[in-house]
Amino acid sequence: MMQTDLSSALSLALVIDDSHTQRLLAREVLEQLGLFVEEAENGAAGLEAFKRLQPDIVLMDVLMPEMDGFSACAALRKLPHGQHTPVLMLTALNDTDSIAHAYDVGATDFIVKPFNGLILSHRVRYMLRASQAAAALRNSEASLARAQHIARLGNWQRDIPANTVGISDEAHRTLDLPAEIFNGTYEDFRKTVHPEDKDRLEQLVQAALAEHQPYCTDYRIVLPDNSQRIIQEQAEITCGADGTPVQVIGTVQDITDRKRTEEQLRTLAHYDGLTNLPNRRLFQDRLDQALRVGRRQQKVLAVLLLNIDRLKRVNDTFGHTGGDLILQSVSERLLTCVRQSDSVARRDEEAGAVTVSRLGGDEFTILLTNIDSPQAPAKVARRVLAALTPPFFINDQEMFLTGSIGISLSPSDGNDANSLLKNAGTAMGHAKKQGLNTYQFYAQDMNATAMQRLALENNLRKALGRNEFALHYQPQVDIRRWEIVGVEALIRWHHPDLGMVPPAQFIPLAEEAGLIASIGEWALRTACTQHKTWLAAGLPPIRMAVNLSSLQFDQPDLCGTITQILRNTAIPPRHLDLELTEGVIMRNAASTIKTLQQLKQLGITLSIDDFGTGYSSLSYLKRFPLDTLKIDRAFIRDVTSNPDDAAITTAIIAMARSLNLRVLAEGVETESQMTFLREQGCDELQGYLVSKPLPAEELVQLLRVLPPCPIQGGVAASLSNERKP
Ligand code: C2E
Ligand code: MG
Ligand code: MG
Question: Atom 44 of ligand 1 has which residue's CA nearest to it?
């Protein structure tokens, strides 16, 4: 008996032949091979048997009654399992036509009758083995395709010389390239790539081809409904014998879902699930980053730590769902109020954003970057507390909540996230001890300042209405003629409790609180009215100098306001002098010139105040329509003892003269200062040597009789005697 092998073990052979003898002969050979054998006596019966038995191999006679072997073979190939089963035709006709016909109808091979047993045996064995190998290959291809389908992984091959691309079914699906738009060219292959990604992808491919390097990249494709998917493409380059790339083999995989999951994971890791605010981790990242930027730009930043007072009470009464609802509302209110406060924290564009985060539990943080004063975080803290004041509702039930806020500043309270948070926490503890619903700075002295400023700001709002402001006037004297040529109006605030508050303290506050426009307008109007009263009383006409805040200078209707005041008080415009600081003028030189020219056209004069402390550029100074330069008191104070100050003062006077500007020295307190200034050619002086700023009634005395010039025998002294009473 012939040795069986794996390929024929347990296999079933179907012999279809009308000759009983032939069937017996075949059976004998096949059974020796270890095959099970079934028989059928014509084509039709054979087909029936095939459907029923699904044999592994078919031996088919060609000439049979009812249905011949050719027709039976053709029909068999159309059956569900008939496509791949090996069919061996048994033909008595040893002519090429029959053989060709047999192949045409799908026969796998043929053998001529009467057959030699040994040859039949070998041929059947070979056919079974080949069929099984093919089946295994088909199987593995199918599982590969299934695996690729599951992984949404398609493969493709690009033939560079032919400019063609062959793509797998899965690649068709992945790239959404239906037959209508894909004709096999490389251009077709890229048809669905997102227009914004096309150039980058092409550059990458070109670079890979040039360097013969594999590549891996992600790009977007656009589907017909305009939705997008993310594709990951990997490829390798094959080069020809001459070393130029001839083929690219690659895969495409739809990684949209993976990307989405990554995004979700990132969100989970960085955001608080309840409020969607950044969580502690992201907050620390942002704080670290802000600290790095802050250090580089030498900017101050603030960390506000808010704790909701007695949230436990809410949880006890309404359960944790109630507490959750409250925390969500708190986060919404925080975001709204920080958005409004944003402009408080930053005046200039480069200022960083404000970050609100939930640290966990009942704790929130607000990060303010690039702040210009400790008032900014204090203001935000007050707004946050105010935002928490309106009632919260849980199931229609009203709930009142308060918060306590601790504030730490960098660099003064710490240079790293941990110490800033820790110190804000300590400050928050102080706020709780203060009796809730309040804020505290970590640095204790800051609290006092903040509280003072707050009280002051509240009073300042009411000061105009309560008539608490007054103007004092300080004479400006012509050094040579020893004659009062002008007065500077200086504002005074008589605070009901604090007494006299100096302008250096409340003017910046008024600017910050948006009150400077009305206060400034009041000062202008009052000064002009006073001037008119003096004129009416028969006093000599003098210059009335009024200080202008930088914020007033920026007001679009400044000229209109001044025109109106001049008209209402009927003072000659040439008697009004506006004092501007260097900072105001140099800030935006181009637009300043325009405003200054408009002011000049009204007929008023302009002085530059506190000169020497700013950063005036000489070339601009030349172009500004100015009248007077006021040398800052800082240079006058030690002008007789400090050679530097003397040199600067001398230089300023010389420069003013060359620019045809009048020059006035501020803060002149001593005779020696005056002598020095007079010798250098300074035109005017203002200072305690002549008089402190005085209330209008007292100044009148000076206007009538100025005490004699303290310098004996000077020009001024002789001239002063000629002064009219
Ligand atoms: P400023 O315009 O440079 O005014 C001169 C300041 O020097 C005044 O201070 C004045 O009292 C002081 N002073 C004058 N002579 C002497 C002196 O011999 N020795 C010393 N030690 N000080 C002298 P004051 O009145 O406290 O005003 C301070 C600043 O407040 C002013 O500086 C001005 O910038 C601002 N200011 C005053 N009134 C107004 C106003 O109505 N509007 C605006 N926007 N700012 C004002
Ligand atoms: Mg001034
Ligand atoms: Mg000044």
Answer: 549
Ligand nearest to the Cα of 610, by number: 3
Between 150 and 244, residue with greater pLDDT = 244
Spatial distance between the Cα atoms of 238 and 221, rounded to a whole number of angstroms: 26
Q: How far is 460 from 330, CA to CA, in rounded Å?
A: 32
CA of residue 143 to ligand 3 center, whole Å: 89
Q: Length of the chain, please?
A: 725
Q: Which atom of ligand 1 is nearest to the CA of 503?
A: 30
Instruction: Report the pLDDT averaged over residues 241-264.
Output: 90
Please state which architecture CATH assigns to domain 469-704. Alpha-Beta Barrel (3.20)
Q: Give the pair of three-digit tokens for residue 44.
A: 């039709």
Q: What does the pLDDT look like over 436-480, one tens digit per residue?
A: 889 999 987 777 777 777 788 888 989 999 999 999 999 999 999
> How does residue 278 score in pLDDT terms, banded at 50, 70 and 90?
very high
Q: For residue 584, give the ligand nearest its CA.
A: 1
Please give all residues whose beta carbon lies within 6 A of any atom in ligand 1, as ranges: 474, 490-491, 502-504, 507, 520, 523, 547-549, 579, 609-610, 633, 666-669, 686-688, 693
Among the listed residues 186, 143, 135, 147, the one whose alpha carbon sits nearest the alpha carbon of residue 164? 186
Give me ligand 2 centre to Cα 545, in Å.
8
- Give the residue among 470, 468, 553 at the shortest CA–CA distance from 511: 553
Residue 169 makes CB contacts below 8 A (sequence gap 6+) with 145, 154
Please state, in angstroms and rounded to a whole number, the distance separating the CA atoms of residues 251 and 272: 38
d(CA 55, CA 79): 12
pLDDT on residue 8: 56
**SS3 assignment, position 497:** coil
Tokens, residue 109: 């091979």
- One DSSP character per residue, 312-333 reads HHHHHHHHHHHHHHHHHHHHHH
Choose which residue among 468, 490, 699 to substitute to test ligand 1 binding: the one with the highest number of ligand atoms within 8 A of its C-beta: 490
Q: What pLDDT digit, counting tens, does each position of 88-136 carry?
A: 998 876 667 888 888 999 999 999 888 889 999 999 999 999 999 998 9
Q: Spelled out in words, what is the top-level CATH class assigned to the domain 145-259?
A: alpha beta
Q: Does domain 273-463 have CATH number 3.40.50.2000?
A: no
Q: Which atom of ligand 1 is nearest to the CA of 491?
A: 38
Q: How far apart are the CA of 498 and the centre of ligand 3, in A?
A: 25
Could you tell me the CA-to-CA distances from 555 to 513, 596, 646 in Å, in that order?
15, 13, 38
Residue 1, pLDDT above cutoff 50: no
pLDDT in tens, 529-563: 999 999 999 999 999 999 999 888 888 889 999 99
**Domain extents in the chain:** 5-139, 145-259, 273-463, 469-704
Give yes or no on whether 5-139 and 273-463 have one common fold.
no
> Of ligand 1's atoms, which has the minimum distance to the CA of residue 520?
42
The Å distance, Cα 666 to ligand 3 centre, comes to 6
**CA of 692 relative to ligand 2 center, distance in Å:** 13
Task: Read off the tokens for 25.
Answer: 């002969």
Query: Which residue out of 472, 473, 494, 547 has the highest number of ligand 1 atoms within 8 Å of its CB and is therefore the one to mutate?
Result: 547
- In 3-state terms, what secondary structure has residue 188? helix
The model's pTM is 0.54
For the domain 5-139, what is the CATH superfamily, name and number? Response regulator (3.40.50.2300)
Hey, what are 351's tokens?
A: 């200022």
Q: Which is the closest atom of ligand 1 to the Cα of 688?
A: 18
Question: How close is the Cα of 517 to the center of ligand 3, in Å?
Answer: 20
